[in-house]
Amino acid sequence: MKKRITKSIMALLLTIVFLLSTAGVAFASPNANVVSKEEVVYVNTSATGGVKDIYVVNIFNLAGDGTIEDYGQYAEVKNLSTTAEMTNQDGKVMVEGTGERFYYQGNMQEGQLPWNIAVAYYLNGNEISADKLAGSDGKVDLVISTTQNTNINSTFFNNYVLQISVTLDTDLCRNIVAPDGMFANAGKNKLITFTALPEKNAKYTISMDAVNFEMEGIQIAAVPFSMGFDLPDTNAIASEFDALINGVGQLSDGVGRLSDGTNELAKGILEAKNGSDLIQTGLNTLSGDGNLLLQGSTSILNGIVAINQSFQNSGLGDLPAALHGIANTLDMDKADGVGVAADLMTLYGQFEAAYTTLTQSISGIPGQTVNEEKLDALLAQYPDNTTLADLVANYKETHGAVTAIKGNLETNQAAFNALLNGLRTAAYTLSGAEQSIDTLLRGLATDVEKGLSAFGAGLGGLETEYRTFHGYLEAYIGGVTQIANEYGAFGEGLGNMSTGLGELYTGASKINSGMQQLYSETKDIPKQVQDRIDEYMAPYDKSDYKPVSFVSDKNKNISSVQFVIKTEKIEKEEPEKPQEAVTETPSFWTKLQDLFQ
Fold first, then answer.
1. Considering the domain boundaries, does residue 525 fall inside one?
2. CB-count exposure of residue 243 (10 Å: 0-12, 13-18, 19+)
3. Does residue 505 lie within any of the structural domains?
4. What is the CA radius of gyration of the chain?
């Protein structure tokens, strides 16, 4: 009896404790102690990727003891941290949490994933089911596909990366090929990993030669994408481009100066070409006028030579001796007037013939063949050409001397005519005038001898000097003509140079324009690089992503959500072994209940 009372008291006390604890759960402020929540979603699928069951491990980081209120459509929940009972009603789970971290498991009533996962198997090119593939030999192909499941919140598909791992036994699989996979060795196993990026559908293939094929289940981990590397410092990249930009700018300035300098040089050469053309024109004019001058000088020289030859051949040099002979004859034959008269008539005939020849030679000398106005104009055009000035002066002086000789002969023509008349008259008037005639003849002979001697010497010197002058003139005009002919090549060279410089300037201008455009585009390279990096990395920059609950959007303060997915393994069926009885270790509650039995 006493023992029963004791048991009744103990039961009553336990009931009171339980009610008090339940009351505490009911009235405490829910989630006041919850700092954050994490979710790890475990998924088992068939060998082909179809979802079989989903259970979620919910992890709460606590600031102290208190009531936890969570949401999710769970068929079953299980406390993984304490022995506290949990309530699961209408999608709400409540439990008393203690410690720093609290865990509970919730098995979802039905489930879909953010991704549609499909695995297809082929044996020797033909699709085959997983159970029939087990233990087969031949060429095996696996095709793994992941696509977006639009029935689930897209935040997971847009922000999560899938890491797909396939483990193959190298004793059973050889010649493994996976174009997009990364290979690693784990003992005798070959681990092949694929990575599907956010917002991307993916498809991967694995090929192998299999013997008695078996395979562990494919494991897929889904976590928020985070770049596991630091991008290079774009400021450093920009500084790297500074030297290039400055160099291009300096090159652009240099090309601009080259273009300007080429333009100025082209203008200068063009001016030189224009000046050269004027020089060429002047040389051509000088050469033409010089040839006219040379022609006139040649005519003068020929005239002087003709005069000199005529004088030498005229017999005038014998005139003084003849006059003296007549005088002597007159002394010897004073009484014979007839003989003297005959001699005078003979002398008259000879002198007349010589004088006629001389006057004809003098008249053959041309007049001024070159207009002095042209010579003066030529000198005015080339005032600094001293050689030309000397030649023109000598020409004028020589032409003046020849003209003077011609004038003197024409002036003295009356005297010669008087002499002839005197000889002729003397022949008829010898009678009674012998003494006067003797005196006249001897004086005339002396005067004629002196005059003819001076005239002959002057005429010979004139011919010699004029030949020297004419040689100089001929050499000068020949040099001018040669320069005029050869200067054309120089002018042509200047023209070609001017054309070439014009083309060089055109090319330099194009290069300058291109360099300016290059500099304009180059100076923006750092910004363009940064913009392009931002553009390429934008789809993968998930730094602003804030996790949300997979099981219910009512859950707040979510710090992390991860998915662990595994397909069924492919293996041959083994004969079942008899199972040994397992003795369960009684739990705390079992032991507690046994106290009241």
1. no
2. exposed
3. no
4. 69
Please, are residues 59 and 558 in contact by the beta-carbon 8 Å criterion?
A: no
- Write down the pLDDT at residue 230: 57
pLDDT digits (tens, 9 = 90+) for 198-241: 999 999 999 999 999 999 999 999 999 986 555 556 666 666 66
Residue type, position 287, single letter: S
DSSP conformation letters of 385-442? -HHHHHHHHHHHHHHHHHHHHHHHHHHTHHHHHHHHHHHHHHHH--TT-HHHHHHHHH
Written in H, E and C, the secondary structure of 183-208 is EEEECCEEEEEEEECCCCCEEEEEEE
Is 301 found in the same domain as 183? no
Give residue 377's Cα distance to chain centre: 57
Nearest-angstrom CA–CA distance, 318 and 448: 10
Task: Tally the domains of the chain.
Answer: 2
Domain with 201 in it: 39-226+542-573
Q: Can you give 311-377 as a three-state secondary structure string?
A: HHHCCHHHHHHHHHHHHHHHHHCCCCHHHHHHHHHHHHHHHHHHHHHHHHHHHCCCCCCCCHHHHHH
103 and 141 share one domain: yes
For residues 470-479, average pLDDT: 82
Strands 182-186 and 115-123: unpaired
Q: Is the overall model pTM greater than 0.70, yes or no?
A: no
Sign of CA dihedral 280, 283, 287, 288: positive
